Automatic annotation (TrEMBL), chain A:
Family: Belongs to the binding-protein-dependent transport system permease family. CysTW subfamily.
Regions that span the bilayer: 37-60, 228-255, 275-295, 301-319, 351-372, 424-445
ABC transmembrane type-1 domain: residues covered: 230-442
Name of this protein: Phosphate transport system permease protein PstA
GO molecular function: phosphate transmembrane transporter activity
SUPFAM superfamilies tied to this protein: MetI-like (SSF161098)
Main location: membrane
Membrane association type: Multi-pass membrane protein
Pfam families according to UniProt: BPD_transp_1, DUF3333
InterPro entries, alphabetized: DUF3333 (IPR024573), MetI-like (IPR000515), MetI-like_sf (IPR035906), Phosphate_PstA (IPR005672)
Keywords from the named record: Cell membrane, Membrane, Transmembrane, Transmembrane helix, Transport
Region (Disordered): 1-27
One Gene Ontology term, aspect cellular component: plasma membrane
Species: Thalassococcus profundi
TrEMBL record, chain B:
SUPFAM superfamilies recorded: P-loop containing nucleoside triphosphate hydrolases
Record protein name field: Phosphate ABC transporter ATP-binding protein
Organism per entry: Thalassococcus profundi
Alphabetized UniProt keyword annotations: ATP-binding, Cell membrane, Membrane, Nucleotide-binding, Phosphate transport, Translocase, Transport
InterPro entries: AAA+_ATPase (IPR003593), ABC_transporter-like_ATP-bd (IPR003439), ABC_transporter-like_CS (IPR017871), P-loop_NTPase (IPR027417), PstB-like (IPR005670)
Keyword ATP-binding on entry: yes
UniProt GO MF annotations: ATP binding; ATP hydrolysis activity; phosphate transmembrane transporter activity
Compartments, as annotated in UniProt: Cell inner membrane
Alphabetical GO biological process terms: phosphate ion transmembrane transport
CDD domains referenced in this protein's UniProt entry, alphabetically: ABC_PstB_phosphate_transporter
Membrane topology annotation: Peripheral membrane protein
Gene Ontology CC: one annotated term: plasma membrane
Length: 453, 265
């Protein structure tokens, strides 16, 4: 300040700040505004947490029952005259007895079990009692016999899948009232079930087949599992990873570090941003047109699913990779060029390692998105009753019709039976476990690469 | 006006190392360097002085083609090093930069260990046959940059964890480790304390035995202390270029005189 200005200031003016021990009005207003803003923040976070908690609660409550399954333990006689008329244990002959041929054996065993347990019931006919078991029970017996013909002529203990209604009763999903209108099982059956539970013949255990098994037909929800669909998702993710990571990262490095800045690269840039916002179903129909109708790749194959999801994931990976390359300070590039490194050396020795955590995170988020994507799969036929068989090898894993986790969940949710609804929630838990694992891997990789500063 | 201790050891080798003629630099529409002619001698320290924004860094960056990395930058005119046009189509800028090392205005160590920072250049140029040789190169470079005593016990610690002044000396060590023929230094001492500055100035003086050194500085005392030739830039023009001695005691141009006496800048 010059003398002139200080002289012109009115002498009566109070000091601008005054005592710093008292908040001035301005400071008070400023602090109040800050407190309000913090409060908004806390409210916003609380609302978010509330929704998250509600979501998790709903998923766990609805989905956990799918992870246990009700079984009935029965002693079943396997008479030789029914199962092997010629008595020579010829596998060809054994195969001729269909699963229906086993039903009378099951019925007889059930009658005996019920009467041995001392249960009074109006249902005396074994074939009626048979409704308590899954229709898959016959196949379970037949598989045992075919696998080991020596069991013929003996009495074996079997743990048979209970029907979905009995399972639902055990889990509290089904009660006598709802069965009054249900043709599959009558309320009287439940009395028998109660008796068998007391006798220890019916119990619930952890449902491994739900995690490892294959999809089942509409009438056998108790048998349906995610395993094959998980494999389908796995093969798809393999395709996505192998294609989108190198292509995406190479494209981003080229665009960000080497490409000249001109109209053409601007055009590409705009288009990549737009592609990231294209609805996934559009990629689905593109996949249908290009890979199936034009290139004649097999329908419903994880390979096609993977290719389609690659198209969808690429923009995500390119955008996040470019962002993390951009975040590397230009002075690092100058430093490398300054000591005589080539452009490529500066990128690969210095820029890329620094961008790596961001690239990996972007890639895994892209993969996680792809893993949870359903819409494109609907269009290339990866939904429906198809995840019924395990692929016999790597090639068939890529090429044979399969589903994927989210498509399988969608398929189950679509089926009318409430037992399938429960499986759909259970499937969501499995899907979320996979997604959380992937995020965890992302975090670990990030940590690992960041430690190298 | 200024004490010029180097005045008696005036330019010994007068071979021209860098010859610039009619150099124009544009950043888009900004005309940053206007028709600069300058001849920089080998085995000499040449100082560039001038007010902020006058184009010292820009001109310096022309000498090793670092301006190539700025898309909007356009360089016209001729710059010859050892008689070869560095803007010739056949010139590979990477090879040029191995010959013309640079220390930047802001310290920019790699986010790697101190050792790897210094060893990076020798490694990519294949200057060491084995680990022992590389160790020697690193040690001598750190010694010349007056950083050895502080760094010798923490060679594996991150270079980015050093103080600002230490980082700048690390960058100097990194630049000298590749044994360039010309060393361009853009305000190498702006982040250093007087002791480190004195050490770097000593280093510069030592480098003069073998290299051509070009140093940009805002410190008139420093220019007077270390350089034999001084170029004064103003608004993109090279106003005056002469023996340091002459510039600081008897400048020809009025603008030079105003600047060194503190009236413009
Ligand atoms: N990357 C760039 N893009 C556009 N203009 C630039 C760029 N770099 C420098 N300029 C302009 O060129 C002119 C010269 O800048 P330069 O950095 O060479 O100045 P300087 O003499 O080094 O200044 P200082 O002493 O502050 O470092 C300035 O007007 C500046 O705004
Ligand atoms: Mg500068």
């Amino acid at each position: 300040m010059t003398d002139a200005t200080s002289a012109s200031a009115p002498a009566s003016q109070p000091p601008r700040i005054g005592s710093i021990l008292h908040e001035s009005d301005r400071t008070k207003r400023r602090n109040a505004a800050e407190r309000r803003f913090r409060l908004y923040g806390v409210i916003a976070i609380s609302i978010g947490m509330l929704f998250l908690a509600a979501l998790l609660f709903a998923i766990v409550r609805n989905g956990i029952p799918a992870f246990t399954q009700t079984y009935m333990t029965v002693q079943i006689e396997l008479p030789a005259d029914v199962l092997d008329e010629n008595g020579n244990r010829d596998p060809e002959d054994l195969r001729k007895v269909s699963t229906f041929g086993y039903n009378p054996l099951i019925a007889a065993a059930l009658e005996r079990t019920v009467s041995e347990a001392g249960i009074e019931t109006e249902i005396t006919d074994g074939s009626d009692l048979r409704d308590m078991l899954s229709s898959a029970a016959g196949a379970q017996l037949r598989d045992t016999v075919l696998a080991d013909p020596d069991v013929i002529g003996t009495t074996q203990e079997f743990r048979l899948l209970a029907s979905s209604r009995v399972d639902g009763y055990m889990k509290g999903r089904v009660d006598r009232e709802s069965l009054a209108r249900d043709p599959n099982l009558s309320p009287e059956h439940l009395d028998v079930v109660d008796g068998l539970v007391d006798a220890g013949a019916i119990n619930r255990s952890f449902n491994w087949p739900f995690i490892t098994g294959s999809d089942a037909s509409e009438s056998r929800p108790e048998q349906a599992g995610m395993g094959v669909a998980i494999l389908g998702s796995f093969f798809m993710m393999l395709v996505v990873l192998v294609l989108s990571l190198p292509i995406g990262v190479a494209a981003s490095i080229y665009l960000e570090e080497f490409a000249p800045q001109n109209k053409f690269t601007d055009f590409i840039e705009v288009n990549i941003s737009n592609l990231a916002a294209v609805p996934s179903i559009v990629f689905g129909i593109l996949g249908l047109a290009v890979f199936i109708q034009f290139a004649h790749l097999p329908q419903s194959a994880p390979l096609v699913g993977g290719l389609t999801l690659t198209l969808m994931t690429l923009p995500t990976i390119v955008i996040s990779t470019r962002a993390s390359l951009k975040a590397v300070p230009p002075s690092i590039r100058d430093a490398a060029l300054g000591v005589g490194a080539s452009k490529m050396q500066s990128v690969f020795h210095h820029v890329l390692p620094l961008a790596m955590p961001g690239i990996l995170t972007g890639t895994i988020i892209g993969l996680a998105q792809a893993l949870g994507e359903t819409a494109p799969l609907l269009l290339i036929g990866m939904v429906g009753y198809i995840a019924t068989n395990y692929p016999d090898g790597v090639a068939s894993g890529f090429l044979d019709p399969n589903s994927a986790m989210p498509a399988q969940i969608f398929e189950w949710a679509k089926r009318a039976d409430p037992a399938y609804y429960e499986r759909a929630w259970g499937g969501i838990i499995i899907l979320l476990v996979f997604l959380l694992t992937m995020n965890l891997i992302a975090i670990l990789l990030r940590r690992r690469f960041e430690r190298r500063w | 006006m200024y004490d010029v201790p180097n005045s008696e050891r005036t330019v010994t080798a007068t071979d021209t190392k860098i010859a610039a003629k009619g150099v124009q630099v544009y950043y888009g529409d900004t005309h940053a360097i206007k028709d600069v002619d300058v001849q920089i001698a080998d085995k000499t320290v040449t100082a560039f002085i001038g007010p902020s924004g006058c184009g010292k860094s820009t001109f310096l960056r022309c000498l090793n083609r670092m301006n190539d990395t700025i898309d909007i930058c356009r360089v016209e005119g001729d710059i010859h090093i050892d008689g070869e046009d560095i803007y010739d189509k056949r010139v590979d800028p990477v090879q040029l930069r191995a010959k013309v090392g640079m220390v930047f205005q802001k310290p920019n160590p790699f986010p790697k260990s101190i050792y790897d920072n210094v060893a990076y250049g020798p490694r990519i140029h294949g200057m060491a046959r084995n680990k022992a040789e590389l160790d020697d190169i690193v040690e001598s470079a750190l010694r010349r940059a007056a950083l050895w005593n502080e760094a010798k016990d923490r060679l594996q610690a991150p270079g980015t964890g050093l103080s600002g002044g230490q980082q700048q000396r690390l960058c100097i060590a990194r630049a000298v480790a590749t044994e360039p023929e010309i060393l361009l230094m853009d305000e190498p001492c702006s982040a250093l304390d007087p002791i480190a500055t004195a050490q770097v100035e000593e280093l510069i003086d030592e480098l003069r035995q073998n290299y051509a050194v070009v140093i940009v500085t805002h410190s008139m005392q420093q220019a007077a202390r270390v350089s034999q030739k001084t170029a004064f830039f103003h608004l993109g023009n090279l106003v005056e270029y002469d023996d340091t001695n002459k510039i600081f005691t008897n400048p020809t141009d009025k603008r030079t005189e105003s600047y060194i006496t503190g009236r413009i800048g």
